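[stage:ingest] chain + small molecule (calcium ion)
[stage:ingest] validated
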Amino acid sequence: MHPLPTMTSTQSRSRGLRAASVVCLALGLTSTIPAFGEAPEGTKASRLPKAATRVAYPNLRFDRPVALAYPAEDPSRFFVAEQHQAKIWSFPSSPRDGSEKKLFLQLPDPINKGNEEGLLGLAFHPRYKENGQFFVYYSANDGPERRSVVSRFNVSSDDPQKADPASEKRIWVSDVDKWENHNGGTILFGPDGFLYITLGDGGAGGDPLSTGQNPKDWFGSILRIDVDHPAPGKAYGIPADNPAVKSKSHAYWAPEVFAIGLRNVWKFSFDRQTGDLWAGDVGQNLYEMVHKIDSGGNYGWSIREAFHAFEPQRRQKADPASKIQPPLAEYPHTPTADRPDSGLSITGGYVYRGEAIPELKGCYVYGDYDSGRIWGLKYENGKVTANGEIVDVTPRTKLNITSFDETPEGELLILAFDGRIHELVPASD
Ligand SMILES: [Ca+2]
Ligand SMILES: [Ca+2]
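[stage:predict] done
[stage:export] tokens:
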């Protein structure tokens, strides 16, 4: 499905740590690649509580739901985006046993419907109540050239439960994207009021265009734009503290680029308490990874895959603006005795700030689309102090997790390809 890694011939290549380090030295990369460090053990979860999943809205079903959002000022209705139907539905957020849902928007333009394509992102303007604006990210089907689009729509002037399909304004359009995979797709407003966009490295496998370390193109990045103060002749502005604007060392970066070295961040989120940006980055053939993303940061793709060398010999050099930051955590595709908790495609989640599972407060919760496993990661004083599975997933309860979403109370909802909205609850429930 969506961010499923592309299996290529790289699968069979040796990635021994020692061999990779030698290659780095040979290329003179040591100044920009710090020591690899140790990947934290992933299964020690003694300080983490056990949780479970259950269906949150038993009478609602959706077709390939991939994003849930709602206006911050009015969470009385939630909105769910269907990937290939290109529809956004709204429904009352409570009570949970309702069956009413209303079609808010059918995207007016045709979309591409590859496995990782479609209507992928939805974000309401922080002042939606005032301006009626919301934003979508989708894979446009405009002709032979493939592109991703962020469009602004307005709510209908005479029906608050319907969008106005004629109001579409494309505010950001990607460069030509040769491949149908690795399109990222999440858009979110940060606590700073700017719109963040993740678009993946373009696709195929192994970063054939070397977009990951190229900060002048948008691919392989998270972007940050100002939709409220467009520059002359443009549909958006560049925040004054974006890396290329504020930092001399990043002056050659594309102005929109916030962070680089990311392969395919399918989901990212902001910690509602700290404002930190957390991302799940889908790896190539061996590892999935969790990053905490800083402005101007470089997360290593495609020199590295998680804590490991990927293709250092193919790259001329790492982007010199900032040192490569390793992930906070990784997990393998292939289970081992030490790491049975594997998966194939990470779905980044949220730092839990709810009340239902008190021991989980402050932990970053993330999952895997393929294995359905769900982990919690505790990050304290700059260190990962716990990281492990928090749900005992069985074949009966396994979900193909496409998205974690946060309720106004900070509880976590989970979208899955069984078409349902689930929730994270204490294991004893
Ligand atoms: Ca692509
Ligand atoms: Ca790039």
